[in-house]
Design a protein that fits this description.
The complex is a heterodimer of chains A (327) and B (505). Chain A has 327 residues and is α+β, with helices and mostly antiparallel strands. The longest helix of chain A has 15 residues. Chain A is globular. The N and C termini of chain A lie far apart (42 Å). In chain A, 49% of the residues are buried. By secondary structure, chain B is an alpha+beta fold. Chain B is built from 17 helices and 13 strands. A five-stranded antiparallel sheet of chain B has the order 3-6-1-13-8, covered by helices on one side. A four-stranded antiparallel sheet of chain B has the order 4-5-2-12, with no helix packed on it. In chain B, helix 2 packs across helix 3, helix 10 crosses helix 14 and helix 11 packs across helix 12. Classes of the chains: A alpha+beta (327), B alpha+beta (505). Chains A and B meet through helix 1, helix 2 and helix 6 of A and helix 13 and helix 17 of B.
C-alpha cells in the first residue's frame, strides 16, 4: 500500500488532499470564488476581457421570472439552460430543437421531447437552488447551444464534448478533451461516464482515452479511435485559457472550452476546484509540470507568451501505444 | 509558515490536554477504568467514661501521617460537646470540651481512609535526640548494651535490628534483663527500646496503630518501632527485629503519649471498630478534590446536575465521531451524504441498538425515497418539497411505530429516535444524486454514509472510551490536535491509490 503511494508520488500524481491544501488554499483566495462559481459573472468578466463566450439569451433570477422563459427562447430553436451556481455539469439541460408540430415541445440532446411545463419546473428547481454548490437560491442562465465541430462527431455520443485546460499561475499545464457517451447521458463529465482523452499541450493532438479510470483506445459507443485528433485553433485555446488567470485571479484554474462549428472556441466556464482525472486521461501526474512552471514563472509575461512557453515546455512523451491514424 | 503554526498549535493542545489528564489521573487519582473500586475503611473510636462534677476535657490522639492510606474524611459525633482538632508537633489531637455533664458519656471519632500505596510517607527529619537522662544502675546497663550492639552493627538500621534481636533473646543477658524489668507490656518494651536508641543517638519513636481487617468490633492497638536513619523513617517489628510494617496497618499516633486523656471523667474505656467497604474510585477522587479545592474538578463536569451530565456523556463522544469522519473522508476517501450525517445516525444507533437501527434506517430511507420520487411528479419548488419530505418522514416514523407495536415488536418504537430533519435531507440529496448521477452513485454514497456511521457507532459506543472522555474531557484537546494535523494531511487518500493506480510506473 505504501509502496503504491510512493510510486504515485514518484510519478508526480496530485492527490485531492494535496490539491486542496497546497494549491487551492494557497493560490485561490476565497473572495475570488464568485468569479467562477457564478457562471453569469464569469461570462460577464470574460466578455469584458474580450474572450469568446456562448451568447447569453437571458437570465432567470427568481421564481417570478420563470414565466419570462417562453419570451427568452421565443426566437431560438436551440439553447442550453444551466444553473449559474452549479457544479460538475449538474442541472444543465441542452435543447437541440423544437417539435415540428408543437412549438412548446422541446427536443433534448438525446432526442426525447420535453414539454415547456417540465422545463419551467426544472428552471424553478434551478432558481430554488437545487443544483447550487451552497444550496442557496440560484440564477438560471439560458444561452446559446453550441453547434459542435464535426471533428468530434465520431468520438462523442450526443452532447457537447469540451476541452479542459488546467492553468497554473497563468500557464497552461495540462489539457484533455471530454467526450460524452451514452452512459454519461450526453454530459461531458468524467465521473458520469464520459471518456477523457489527454491532449498534447505542444501540438493540440489527442492522446489515448480513459473511461472510468480505465484506458480505452476507442469510443465505447461509436467505436472510433480517440487518439491522434488535431484540435483546431489550439494556440487560441491555450491563449484564452491562459487569459483566464487575468480574468479570475485564480492561480489554480480549470478552463472549459467548447469548439463551435461556426464561432470557433468558446469559453464555457471556469472552475476553481478542477478535478484530478485529467492526470489519468494524460497518463501522467501533473506535479512535475507545476514545479516546472514555478521555475519558469515570469510575472510580466502576457497570456500569449505564457501559452507559447507552455507549448514549448510541455511536449507529450512519445506514446507507448502505436499512434492512431491522423484524422 | 502555516505548517509551523499548525504543528505548534497541535503540540500545544496535546501538551495541555495530556498534562491536565496526567494531573487528574496521577495526582487527583481519577480512575481510568469504569468500575474501578478502592478498598475503604471506616474506623470508629468510641470513648466511654463517667462524667465527673466539673468541666470535662477529653483529648484523643488521631492519625496524621498514614503510609499506605489516605484520609478521605474524619469527623466527631458528640452531643453538646465542643470539638476541635489541635496540631501538636506532628501529631493531631481531637479535643472535646463541655462545661457540665452527668452520667455515662460516649464520644465518637470516625475516620474514613482508603488504600493508596502512594500516600505520603514523608515526615520531618527529626533532630538527633539528646542523651536521655537515666539513673544508675540503668545508665550503665544502657551504655553496655549500646556498646555491645554498636560492635555488631554498621548503621542505624542494623543497630536497631541487632538491639531488637538481643532484647527478644529467650535467655537475655543480664543488662537487658535489668533494663526490661520495669517495662510493662509491648508498649513499655518499645518505649524502653526508644530510650536505648536515643542513648545511641538514633532518633526513634514508638508508633501505634491498628491492623485493619474486614470487620472488627474491637480492634487492638499494636505498637511498632520507628527509627530515622538520617534519610527516612523505617519501621521495625519490635517482636522480631524484622524491618516491616504489618499489612493494612493504619498508624494512629506516634510517640509515648497516651491515646486518650480525660479530665473530669472516670472509668475511661476506648474501643476501635473497623469496617471495610468498597468505594467508587471516581467518588473518592471527587471527594478528595473537593476537600483540596482543586479548581480543575470544581469546574469539571461533575459539578453539573446529573441529568446534564448524562447529556454530556453523549455530546462528548461527538468529537470522536467527527474524528472518524475526518479519517474516513480525508485519509480513506469514502463518500458520504452530508459531512456529519453519519455521526448523527451513529448517535441514534446508540439508542436503537445496531441491527434494528440499520434495519429501521434503511426502511425509512427506502420508503422516503420512493415517496420522494412520487413527489417529483408534482413539480414542487425546492423548499416546499423539502418540507413535504420532512412531513412524510415524520408520518412514516409514526406509521412504523404503530405497525410494529400492533405486531408486538416493541423495538419499532425506537424509530422516533432518528434525527428526522437529517433523514429528510438525506432522502432529498440521495434522490437528486440518483437522478443526476444515477442509482450507482446514490447507492455508493449511501453505503459510504452507512459504513462511516457504523464505524462512528463502534467508536462512540466503547464504554471505556466514553468513561475516559467523560472523566478527562481535556483529552478532547488531543482529538482537536489530531483533527488539526489531519487538516494538513496532503498525502493520498486510500481510494486514490486505486483510482490513480494506472499512473504508478
Amino acid at each position: 500500500m505504501f509502496g503504491l503511494a510512493r510510486k504515485l508520488a514518484d510519478a508526480g500524481v496530485l492527490g485531492l488532499n494535496k490539491r486542496n491544501a497546497e494549491l487551492i488554499m494557497r493560490l485561490n483566495p476565497r473572495h475570488l470564488y464568485p468569479r467562477v462559481d457564478d457562471k453569469s459573472l464569469t461570462k460577464k468578466l470574460a466578455l469584458e476581457a474580450g474572450m469568446a463566450v456562448p451568447d447569453l439569451y437571458g437570465l432567470i433570477r427568481n421564481q417570478g421570472e420563470v414565466r419570462n422563459f417562453q419570451e427568452i427562447v421565443a426566437e431560438h430553436e436551440s439553447f442550453v439552460i444551466k444553473p449559474a451556481g452549479g457544479s460538475g455539469g449538474d442541472g444543465i439541460v441542452v435543447i437541440t430543437g423544437r417539435s415540428k408540430r408543437k412549438r412548446d415541445n422541446f427536443r433534448l440532446a438525446n432526442g426525447l421531447l420535453i414539454t415547456r411545463e417540465e422545463l419551467e419546473h426544472h428552471i424553478s428547481n434551478v432558481v430554488g437552488g437545487q443544483y447550487s454548490l451552497t444550496g442557496n437560491p440560484d440564477i438560471a442562465m439560458v444561452e446559446y447551444c453550441v453547434k459542435f465541430d464535426p471533428l468530434f462527431n465520431d468520438v462523442s455520443f450526443q452532447g457537447v464534448p469540451d476541452v479542459r485546460v488546467i492553468v497554473y499561475r497563468g500557464y497552461p499545464a495540462m489539457a484533455m478533451v471530454r467526450l460524452p457517451t451514452r452512459s454519461s447521458d450526453g454530459k461531458a463529465n468524467l465521473h458520469q461516464g464520459a471518456v477523457g482523452a489527454g491532449v498534447d499541450v505542444a501540438s493540440g493532438r489527442t492522446l489515448g482515452g480513459v473511461l472510468q479510470n480505465l484506458v480505452v483506445d476507442e469510443h465505447p459507443d461509436t467505436g472510433s479511435l480517440i487518439g491522434g485528433l488535431k484540435i483546431p485553433n489550439w494556440e487560441f485555446i491555450l491563449e484564452s485559457s491562459a487569459r483566464g488567470y487575468e480574468v479570475t485571479g485564480l492561480g489554480y484554474l480549470g478552463v472549459d472550452i467548447v469548439i463551435d462549428r461556426d464561432l470557433g472556441p468558446l469559453i464555457l466556464e471556469m472552475n476553481a476546484r478542477p478535478g484530478l482525472n485529467i492526470q489519468i486521461a494524460n497518463g501522467m501526474g501533473i506535479v512535475n509540470r507545476l514545479k516546472r512552471i514555478d521555475e519558469i514563472y515570469d510575472p510580466a509575461a502576457d497570456p500569449a507568451t505564457r501559452a507559447q512557453v507552455a507549448q514549448r515546455e510541455f511536449v507529450a512523451p512519445v506514446p507507448e501505444r502505436p499512434a492512431s491514424a491522423v484524422a | 509558515m502555516t505548517r509551523r503554526y499548525v504543528f505548534t498549535l497541535a503540540i500545544l493542545l496535546t501538551v495541555t490536554g495530556v498534562g491536565m489528564f496526567l494531573y487528574k489521573w496521577q495526582s487527583l487519582g481519577f480512575p481510568l477504568s469504569v468500575q474501578q473500586q478502592t478498598p475503604t475503611w471506616i474506623v470508629e473510636t468510641s470513648i466511654r467514661f463517667d462524667a465527673g462534677r466539673g468541666s470535662i476535657k477529653v483529648n484523643l490522639q488521631i492519625p496524621t501521617l498514614t503510609p499506605g492510606f489516605e484520609r478521605l474524611d474524619d469527623y466527631a459525633v458528640s452531643k453538646n460537646y465542643g470539638f476541635g482538632v489541635n496540631y501538636v508537633g506532628t501529631r493531631r489531637e481531637a479535643q472535646w470540651t463541655i462545661r457540665r455533664a452527668s452520667g455515662p458519656q460516649t464520644l465518637y471519632y470516625r475516620i474514613v481512609v482508603f488504600e493508596n500505596p502512594n500516600a505520603n510517607q514523608s515526615d520531618i527529619t527529626p533532630p538527633f535526640p539528646l542523651p536521655p537522662v537515666i539513673n544508675e544502675p540503668m545508665k550503665t546497663a544502657v551504655d553496655v548494651i549500646v556498646e555491645e550492639v554498636r560492635e555488631h552493627s554498621a548503621d542505624a538500621a542494623s543497630f536497631t535490628a541487632e538491639l531488637l534481636r538481643l532484647a527478644n533473646d529467650p535467655s537475655p543477658n543480664p543488662n537487658i534483663e535489668l533494663l526490661l524489668a520495669d517495662a510493662g507490656g509491648r508498649a513499655g518494651f518499645v518505649q524502653t527500646m526508644t530510650t536505648v536508641l536515643a542513648a545511641a543517638r538514633i532518633p526513634a519513636r514508638m508508633i501505634r496503630g491498628i491492623e485493619l481487617a474486614d470487620q472488627q468490633r474491637q480492634a487492638d492497638i499494636v505498637p511498632w518501632l520507628e527509627i530515622h536513619d538520617g534519610d527516612r523513617w523505617r519501621y521495625f517489628n519490635p517482636a522480631t527485629g524484622e524491618e516491616s510494617l504489618p499489612d493494612d496497618y493504619l498508624i494512629w499516633w506516634r510517640g509515648g503519649e497516651p491515646l486518650v486523656s480525660v479530665e473530669g471523667g472516670s472509668n475511661v474505656d476506648v474501643g476501635f471498630a473497623v469496617k471495610r467497604y468498597y468505594l467508587d474510585t471516581m467518588e473518592i477522587a471527587r471527594q478528595r478534590a473537593a476537600r483540596d479545592e482543586a479548581v480543575l474538578v470544581d469546574f469539571s463536569l461533575f459539578s453539573l446536575p446529573i441529568q446534564t451530565q448524562a447529556v454530556y456523556a453523549v455530546i462528548l463522544m461527538i468529537p470522536l465521531g467527527a474524528l472518524v469522519v475526518v479519517l474516513m473522508r480525508n485519509v480513506i476517501g469514502i463518500d458520504t451524504f452530508g459531512t456529519f450525517m453519519p455521526v448523527l445516525i451513529a448517535l441514534s444507533f446508540r439508542e436503537t441498538q445496531l441491527l434494528r437501527g440499520i434495519l429501521l434506517f434503511t426502511l425509512l430511507v427506502a420508503l422516503g425515497l420512493s415517496i420522494r420520487f412520487l413527489l417529483e411528479r408534482l413539480r414542487l419548488l425546492l423548499v416546499p418539497r423539502l418540507s413535504a419530505v420532512l412531513i412524510v418522514v415524520v408520518l412514516l416514523m409514526l406509521l412504523i411505530s404503530i405497525l410494529t407495536h400492533k405486531l408486538g415488536i416493541e423495538t419499532g418504537l425506537s424509530v422516533a429516535l432518528f434525527p428526522m430533519v437529517i433523514i429528510a435531507m438525506t432522502i432529498e440529496r440521495m434522490s437528486v444524486v440518483w437522478e443526476e448521477r444515477g442509482p450507482g452513485d446514490a447507492m455508493r454514497s449511501a453505503t459510504g454514509s452507512l459504513t462511516v456511521a457504523l464505524l462512528a457507532y463502534f467508536v462512540m459506543g466503547m464504554n471505556w472510551l466514553e468513561h475516559i472522555v467523560f472523566t478527562f474531557p481535556e483529552l478532547l484537546l488531543v482529538v482537536l490536535a489530531a483533527v488539526i494535523l489531519l487538516g494538513r494531511y496532503t498525502g493520498y487518500r486510500l481510494t486514490e491509490l486505486k483510482r490513480f493506480s494506472s499512473l504508478a510506473k
